[in-house]
Amino acid sequence: MTPANPPVVCIIGRKNAGKTELTVALGAELNRRGYRVMTVKHGHGFQIDRPGRDSWRHRHEGGAARTVLAGPGTFAVIGAWSDEELPLSELVHRYLSDADIVLAEGFKDSPEPKVEVFREGPGLDPIFGADPGRDGRTIALVTDGQHATKAVPAFDPGDPDFVGRLTDLLEKRFLDGRSEKEGGAT
Questions:
Q1: What pLDDT is stored for residue 57 in this prediction?
Q2: Could you read off the pLDDT of 21-69 as tens digits, one per residue?
Q3: What CATH number corresponds to the domain at position 115?
């Protein structure tokens, strides 16, 4: 029997809005509450392997389609897409299916639920327009301005308790309040 994919929540926003900071803070709080958290980051070109290293040689000289680097307590999978990059749901299914929850930084065009980080600025609107949440995918807005919406809860990053309250929302909506520490999640 194939395990079901864990819930996935995308953290989206414009450049330098604070997506990484929020992803890390939510991951830390969910972990503190006993959940097995995994993340995926959408990047725009990066290199994890360096020419001349053994793993690089496996791929580039040996022609391996995918190489796994494995060591005590850590591993990485390095490869290349055949045609197009895999959708987020497939990445989660293949590599992160044993998580309780997956936080995905980026992936604004995927169908998974979104938390948008929005920093006020001249001429700026949230990614999904002036009324986030109407799209049905945005479940919360983290904003430093007065950009309130009736469609989704808004959280002020200046509030020292906002990460806890946002985590409460995710926990209630996606995790039924059950964690490994409470004997619920596996």
A1: 87
A2: 999 999 999 999 999 999 999 877 667 778 888 888 888 888 887 888 8
A3: 3.40.50.300
Q: For the chain, first and last CA: distance in Å? A: 16
Residue 70 included in any domain? no
Amino acid occupying residue 133: G
- Residue 66 domain-assigned (yes or no): no
Q: Torsion angle, CA of 30/32/33/37, rounded to 10 degrees?
A: 40
What residues make up the domain containing 106? 8-45+84-182
Tens digit of each residue's pLDDT (9 = 90 or more) over 118-160: 887 766 777 766 665 667 788 999 988 776 666 788 899 999 9
Contact call for residues 97 and 5 (beta carbons, < 8 A): yes
Per the CB < 8 A criterion, the answer to whether 105 and 125 are in contact is no
